[in-house]
Amino acid sequence: MVTIAIAMAVAGSSAAFSEVFHNAMLPTIVSPDRLGRLSGWGLGLGHAGSLLIFLVMLYAFILPADDSVVSNWLPDVPWFGLNIEEFEHERIAAPLTTLWLLVFASPFFLFTRETVTQAQSFTQATREGLIDLLKTLRAVSHFRNIATFLLARMLYNDGKVAIMTFNMIYASGVFGWDSVERLLAGILLTVFAVAGGICGGWMDDRIGSRRAVVVCIAGTTFALCFALSIAPDSVLFVIDPSWGEVVWSLPYFETWPEIFYLFASIVMSVLIASAYANSRALLARIAPDGESSKFFGLYALSGQVTTFVGPLLVAYVTGIAASQRAGFGSLLILLIGGLVLLRWVSEEKSKAVPNI
């Protein structure tokens, strides 16, 4: 278990570091008027790749191993004759993901141009990087616009992450959705997350990154409010026993409240994906020229250092109010807080501090 935990920690840290460098490359590989489009398409295609490998796992390994699932279009047994008793049909996920990563990352390494830099040893680069970071933090008053944005993003990002974490948990408690319904909803939301990234990039290039982020966070706030207004016998807090009646022959999402809740979840999925793409495009637009890596490092830090706040807030409010609705609704505090701070963020390029 210790070995597995260490391996997962290394993989997670490596992925987080690679994201910093990917984001920092945005201003160097595309013109400013196309930043949003590239960010959105990158995010959308990433979600599409995740969805595709997920469907491959379901078709080739997971569903064929489930005796309760019988279908003519599924393989009779997991591919490659994997041993179900040894959980090989589940353990294959790691090697398959590794192969997937190597294949689809290869175009990046083969065709993306590298910025010419001065050769440095790892130790020297680390030492100078830390010194440069400390100098930047001391000059926070000069980078007030960026600092305000990072603080705003820290709040609304915590809210977004917690929404994605608790959305299906809340639906299970309110509507009694089982694993199949949660799985179907998850696939559907991932499909719309692809659209969200692409649409977010389109919106970013037309109305600007800051306005796009505001639209997405405000939209997420309203969608969450709508979702909170839904119960098995009510929509918009209006109680009507007829809401609980079955409206179609499908065995899933059978009532209007469930359908409306799924719709609200789709809207949030689109807007959350879009906000992610727009947020990194906004930082790329306001970070000083030549210092994107440094500020995207702070961007990653601000997005990770307080991710426990959302879950703790939900748990605390749920316990105090003895209500899932109140607990899930407490995330509105984070979304609205981030939205308010965005009022003091301007979409203008910051200038580097001389001799910093």
Tell me the layout of helices and strands.
Blueprint: H1 2-24, H2 26-29, H3 35-62, H4 88-91, H5 93-111, H6 122-138, H7 144-175, H8 179-207, H9 209-228, E1 234-235, E2 238-239, H10 256-286, H11 292-304, H12 309-321, H13 324-329, H14 331-341
Antiparallel strand pairs: 1-2
Helix pairs in contact: 1-11, 3-8, 3-10, 7-10, 7-11, 7-12, 7-14, 8-9, 8-10, 9-10, 9-14
Short description:
The chain has helices at residues 2-24, 26-29, 35-62, 88-91, 93-111, 122-138, 144-175, 179-207, 209-228, 256-286, 292-304, 309-321, 324-329, 331-341, and strands at 234-235, 238-239. It is mainly alpha-helical.
Could you please describe the fold and organization of this structure?
- With 356 residues, the chain is an all-alpha fold.
- The chain has one domain (14-112, 143-344): Up-down Bundle (Growth Hormone, Chain: A).
- It is 70% helix and 1% strand.
- The chain has helices spanning 2-24, 26-29, 35-62, 88-91, 93-111, 122-138, 144-175, 179-207, 209-228, 256-286, 292-304, 309-321, 324-329, 331-341; strands at residues 234-235, 238-239.
- The chain has a two-stranded antiparallel sheet with strand order 1-2.
- Helix 7 packs parallel to helix 11, helix 8 (179-207) runs antiparallel to helix 9 and helix 9 (209-228) runs antiparallel to helix 10 (256-286).
- The protein starts with a helix and ends in a 15-residue tail after the last helix.
- The model has no long low-confidence stretch (mean pLDDT 79).
